[in-house]
Amino acid sequence: LWADSFPSLLSLFPASVWFEGERTCRRQGTQTQHCLRWICCIDTYIKTNSGVNQEKDMQRPPPNPAQMGYQQPPPGAPAGYRQPPPPRLQGIPQGIPQQGQPNQADNSPTSAFHPASRGPPPPPPPATLEQAQPQRYHPQPQGDEDKVYLEDPPAAETFGDEYQGNQKPDDDDEASVDFLLDPKHEMTWGRRFALAFKGFSCYNPSVAMARKEAENTASSASEKLTEGEKFANFSSSSPGAIGAYPFTKSKKETPSLAKAWAYFEHFALPRYVVDDSEGLTTAEPGEEHLPTKLYNPFCTPHNQLGDWGLGVGLYFTTLRALCILTFLGGVVSIPNILYFAGDDYSDGQSGLDNVVLQGSAICTDTTWVPCESCEGNGYPDSRIATGINVDTGDNATFALRNNCDGATLEQSYINLGVIALISAGLFVMNFTIRRVEVQFDEDEQTAQDYSVAITNPPLDAYDPEEWRKFFYEKFEGAHVTTCTVGVDNDLLVNALVERREKLRLLEMRVEPGTSLDTLTLASMAAQQEEHRRFFAKMMALLSPGLPELVSRLVVLNSRIQGLSQRSKPVTNVFVTFETEAAQRQVLTMLSNSSIAKHRGLLFRDKVALKAKEPDEPNTIRWQDLNVKPKMRARQQFLTTFATVIAIGVVALIIRIVNDWNVLFSSFGIAIANVLFPVFGKLLTNFESHHTESTKQRSLYFKIALFRWVNTAVVISIITDFEKTLSDEQGLISQIYALFFAEIVTTNAIQLADIGGHISRHFSAPRAKSQDAMNLSFQGSEVQLAERYTNMTKILLLALWYCSIFPSALFLCAVALFINYYTDRFSLMRTWKRMPHLGPKISIFSRRYFFPAAATAMAVMSSYYWASFPFDNICVNEDETVGESLSGTWLVDPFDDGDNETLSVNASSPVHFHCRQDFFRFHKNASSKIDERFPFIADNQPEGSEWMTEDQDSVTEIWGWVAVGFLCLFAIVIATGCCGRFLCAPGYRPRGEDQGINFSDVPSISSYIPQVDSPIFSYPLVAASTKNIHDELFSWDDPERPYEYYDLSKDAEYLMEGIADLSEGAFSQVVHWPPPKREQAQI
């Protein structure tokens, strides 16, 4: 019989019978054809439920099929055909056994991305019964119970007019989406390529293996195991499987490449909900019931970028603002560009072919002059030569002098206008970004807007109900929706995570069907170790094998058993209220201890609680939440010291390369700037941070320090002072090469995403498990701190050299503009999902790094205006060369350059070596004051003055401008330190109360202790999941229940028969829905 052909059956049973029957049917492993599934479900439900409940259900009026979630039949379906509704019931968390159901986790075989069913999805409906064909799904030995597609379902367009995109036709609001049926025009090009070539073994080696195994097991796989054996791993009477690890035996997996690409586009990449609203609503990862699309990297409105987190939105806002600001600075600098390119400065800079460099301070008007004192004073070989008198044959030393006068009052005033514009722009940008921060925060409602963090709870306050009662009684209208009581169990959580990873690695290394119990694994490890040879032993030191994994597993088991018996004190409590008003009321009252004591807001009538607004839930680093401040300070000191050592080593390498070729040194600097963040991440991973925001701030400091020094400071140090204005291998030429590398090379590498393509198209098809394959599709890891440092590095480079290279401001604007769209593309197509970071990095940049960049501009502009003409040659107008140096001379440069012939008159003034570089002055021994700063005419070495009259005035102005900026920057630093450590302000609400309840926010999450692992596609949960509603998770694994990731089950298994878990072994999370929501769920 085909049950779906008889619509009268729908009126015989209420909705609960259909839903609960199928859930029970799937749990017990009943495998039937689709046409018999509903009869099986009804029979199973009646057998497993009491007669009383059945009578109550039967007394209810017959259900309306549309209300039950049944969808309208596709065109051509038989009469009475109804597609099954989604298995999820409103208010019933998946994976949590309900009353009247066996205590088993839902681990039925699934199509990984078919949300409408936890069993194999139904085939496309036949037009008639005669046209019905056998299903194309074959059992695979994936574990002992899983089934996967041997052949992935065809693309949506093969169904013709029956389906539109991946949206199944129906008339109700609960639409379900099959991710495998995405229309091709909505797929990324990489997915189209992969699906076109996934059938070729050279691209997807698992194809041939899967077909061969399917032929051997398709006819007998489902008959080899009884119903009880299939799901014994998830039975409540077998805690070894569900408690410690989801399978007691290893399984053979045949991962699906189509599923992995669907995971990439629906879980890894951001999507928005397709609706008629004005803005774009961000879809949850793996959104099942609403049609979604990928964000367009170029057409997505700028105000939507806050959907990726407040920190990301502020980053792009800052990037756009700096692009506009530097472009305006370049416009103001146009007169200086025209002056440097004109005849008054360097005869039109003849011989300079690069259009971008024309308009810089490069001096092509040079002359060889006799300078006996110049020899042996460190002049580069290209600027010193030996002269031979054509008439007498005498030898003399000549040096190359610059005849360009760049330090004029007009040009210095224009440069002053630029720094005034930049400073005012940064000041205005600071206030503008504050307003944008409020707008982003109001547009995106998150758990942070409703939550408070208690940082000094009583050590024994384990009961979440006690916290709920306290806030209900002390604060009027404060309904607590969720409460997370965090304990100091970092060691236990880290051990459990490592143990789970080792078990997963062991499962993938042993033969399918091998028991994972300790004795079996120990026997296999001993056997393998006995047959190891020298080379295998050496390889085991680099890549641990089975013996090393088993040894570590035994150690971890013992450690977990010991740690689980110790009572852990409460260290943090996260309380989420139903309304923003309640959160703001609590923070206002508890942020001031005196007010709290005066109003009797004491926990247990004696503890004045310290409350603060926490970071977003997915930014909390639960594994490091309880590390002591002294330990964190020690770690950061060591990593900062390692950063300084790295800067010194790279500077030495760049100096060696620079002596060989200037262009290569510029690209070397760019490559070092790209590679150092990898080293910086390794250093930061050794540090312990409470949140991702503080970790990003630490990483930001390291990368910014390296890139600032490596980009701006190192190149100034390694370049000879006399070559600052040289047209070949000079300082300005290197700056241009750096900008070229930043504009072209860096962005090209980022857009190419070579590592991501290798991971998705080479590593993924060769993965041995679906988890490993999915991990290859998570995208390239990116740090927001790295993007901020890249932006500030380009800005610093332009401001540092804008006085002698005014076109650098235009280059900076171009680079930031390209970065803006390159980063948008990467954010929406190639980068791994970032935590929703707050504004801390943005505030850190605006408070310290941007003022530092403006101060550097003032100091370096003062230095460059004082250093003209950059040749270390002074003139004594009161003395002439005399007859000894007069005549015709053949000048031969030391670098084997072109020889020149010139004439020297006896009345020519004497030229001698002098030090024009203020940074390299020797301190005056007779003075206790360092006379090298400020860079003014009065601080020139006595008897070695080189400045012109205009230059004296210019340096006087700029010298004291630099002093003023340094003083202001010192005030900024002092104010920031005072505000952070001494006189921190109280709580200040950000934005207006939006009047939206926490439970009404569509995409919401809560403070659930979770730890990311490089082995698993989804986080591991460091708390019991039995009291956590599914809606509170920010992710959903379509293959496994949340219990699979529950680390507390591992500890319970290891402690079974030994001792009970201590009261505070794990953090507790409890959810209390508001009364109206509870009634709606009932």
How would you characterize this protein structure?
The chain has about 1100 residues and is of the alpha+beta class. About 45% of the residues lie in helices and about 10% in strands. It has 31 helices and 19 strands. A five-stranded antiparallel sheet has the order 6-8-7-14-15, with no helix packed on it. A five-stranded antiparallel sheet has the order 12-9-11-10-19, covered by helices on one side. Strands 4-3-5 form a three-stranded antiparallel sheet, with no helix packed on it. A hairpin with a 5-residue loop joins β7 (about 385-390) and β8 (about 395-400). α20 runs antiparallel to α21 (about 660-685) and α26 (about 785-800) runs antiparallel to α27. The protein is elongated and about 110 Å long. The two termini are about 35 Å apart.
